[in-house]
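Self-study notes.
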Amino acid sequence: MFNECIDHAGGFTTGTATEAHAMMLLQRGQRRGCHIEATRAGGALVSWTRLQFGPVDGQVDTVARSIKLTPVTPLTSILRGGTVRHDLATIDAHSRSRWESARSRRVVVVGLDGIEAVTGEALHRDGLVTEAPGGRVRLTLAARLGLLAYEHRRRTPWRGRAAYCTCGMSAPGSDPRAEARDVWRAHLRAVTAEFVTGLARPSARTA
């Protein structure tokens, strides 16, 4: 479940969105050419601009609008743990990950291995994994967005003229504080757009 905040002409409207609704918002935003950025909290920012008549005759202003999605349980601090990210990557890499009972507790079975019951329960409680049809385990949309953002964090050297991303991307820039930030942001938007495109393709991870 996500908290949803819409920035519109009349101010802000807040509410909640299910995973299915959040996915629809991302896909619709991409079809309409909006910018979409994954966040380390496990959400996304959908932003766009539109033209609006100003108070003076003939005046036309460009105004920014956005929809911000944030999980009810933000994942920023949870995903800092290397073990958590490793467990999630392991589950995500195996389409046959599933829940099984072991000594009256449910464990996540991944291939020939398993994730400890207490770990699996914590991942489920924190909104990182959910049960799909047939008892399979998959990552939630929030977990996947959070991991994506975590894999693409900005690094700008104190002395330098380049934008670096933790994924290895680098680009020259004339101002490490402004231009580098814009280069990295364009990169994050590009990888998020690729991620959203993948949501439209049926797969074991999202089925």
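Second protein, same conventions, sequence then structure:
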Amino acid sequence: MSLPNGLLPLKDILECGYVKETGFVWLKQKNSTTHKFEKIGKLVSYATEVTAVVSPGKIKKLTG
């Protein structure tokens, strides 16, 4: 799995996992997080549980 650094700036991660066969990834954190990407001026929020399907250089079906 290769993703750009800083793409998912999550803090206090309690659990994470990756299913290599399907590319499914999950991350659980203590509290939801809000982050502003300064270069593009976007504010995003991440829930306590974030899931996605990843492939080299891509993220699909991002939830949370």
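Instructor comment on the second fold: The mean pLDDT is 86.
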